[in-house]
Amino acid sequence: MTTHPPLLSGVKLRKQFHVSSGPASRTGVLTSVDGIDMEIRTGETVGIAGESGCGKSTLAKLLAGLLPSDGGEVRYCGTAIGTLSPAERQRFRQRTQMIFQDPFSSLNPRMRIGDSIAEPLVIAGGGSQQAIRARMLQLLEAVGLKAEHADRFPNEFSGGQRQRIGIARALASSPEIIIADEPVSSLDISIQAQIINLLQAMKSEHHLTMIIVSHDLSVLRHICDRVMVMYLGVIVESAPAGQLFQHFRHPYTEALIAAVPRIAGGHRDASVLLSGDLPSPLAIPGGCRFHPRCRYAAEICRTTPPPLEEKRDGHFAACHLSEVIFPR
Predict the structure, then answer these.
(1) Which residue from 24, 43, 167, 245 has the highest number of Cβ atoms inside 10 Å of its Cβ?
(2) Residue 74: helix, strand or coil by DSSP?
(3) Prediction pTM value
(4) Distance CA 89, CA 76 (A)
(5) Please, are residues 15 and 82 in contact by the beta-carbon 8 Å criterion?
(6) What's the rounded Cα separation, in Å, for the pair 245 and 5?
(7) pLDDT tens digits for 66-116?
């Protein structure tokens, strides 16, 4: 039986940035993504979770081909995107679209939103002006906006409306893959559910594969089939969403879930589980990267990096003490 390669994958992906704190300071190396292996199958919705600064957005941009990697490779249908021909690379770019965290800064303030949505169609050679406009209006309607909105500028819309515009623009090139980087974090709580429901409706209607980046685990629990948890540039846990929330196998995931607000009784005291701030990616701790903040840390955690291992079917965690701490 022939096994099809994953639609999108990362193989030992690595990305570093050279940064300095001032003109006279020494340049340091910031490691944002550090040797990540991951696979995304056709039709999946995969979440990438973690605190700000853990490398989620950098990983998303690597997968979208918007950043070059410093090591490893991104593969599309089994082929490294760096080896694609110009025509194949253009197809990859059309078929892999991003929705950005800030819907205002991702829109040209001097371009009418109808033109912003139509631009991918024009680039792709989407037919006559009439056909392109008809498709643009169809996309506007699909995301809950009206035809008269097409001639307005981004500053005339609310944050939620601008995010709808971003979704319409991403859908214009008929993508296979949507990568959404914190798609609701800049929106009011009352608008977040609308955008999440819209994304789910668009996934169903257009048969999309989706990657959702978010620090909000309640969002990922609602929308994702599988969730990966990042910490300081690496994946520390990966599992089907329901299994991850019910039977987490890493102390960092435990702390993140403890911080999720609950309808009754607020949230657990996450400070008991997670102390201190995220260490700087300029000075990543040795051993397990999480050990300085982990209440369970033992000597092996301080000296030996734990591998990402399968603890049960489809459930991976990078923790030396996982079976002891979480025996279920």
Answers:
(1) 167
(2) strand
(3) 0.91
(4) 10
(5) no
(6) 28
(7) 999 999 999 999 999 999 999 999 899 999 999 988 777 788 889 999 999
